[in-house]
Amino acid sequence: MSLIDEALSANAVIAEDYDASHSGPPAPRIAIVTCADPRLSGITRMLGLDDADVDMIRNVGTVIDDDSVRSLVISTQVLGSREIMIINHNECGMTTFADAELEERLRRETGVSPIAPARFYSFTDAEQNTREQVQKARSHPWISPDVPIRGFVFDVHTGRLSEVL
Ligand code: ZN
Q1: Is 159 left (phi over 0), alpha (psi -120 to 50) or beta?
Q2: Ligand 1 mean position, distance from CA 87 (Å)
Q3: Is-above-0.90 flag for pTM?
Q4: Of 86, 97, 116, 123, which is least surrounded by CB within 10 A?
Q5: How many CB atoms are located within 10 Å of the residue 118 CB?
Q6: How does pLDDT run across 41-53, given as a tens digit for each residue?
Q7: Domains of the chain by residue range
């Protein structure tokens, strides 16, 4: 049985005890952009925040790209988030290869060279990368200057955040 099938079976049972108290319209107070890495899945709890207050925007590598900007604009301009945290982490899988290497390997293995993705956004320095993502988000004209955007690196060994200034 695949994990998806197992999850479907489990859902049928778990939904019996579903708490519908949070089923009203979304009213997030903060948007968090972080990595899809499973080690970041508990980040709301590690920050002591309520799930209902957080718009969680995740992609591999904590990248501010066209799609995460789209989510941030909706979160702040439509849903009402008033602050943005960008949370990268140490030992990210995106530091284990370079874009050019991966592209070369995939071209070799598949024999094709598709137009997308244009970049994988691999990086070497989590702090520097976070600084760049903050700058990209900060410079977007549809994200209000009244919304603070702060960048952090989560340490997967200690569970602590350090702010990137
Ligand atoms: Zn990561």
Answers
A1: left
A2: 10
A3: yes
A4: 116
A5: 8
A6: 999 999 999 999 9
A7: 26-95+124-164
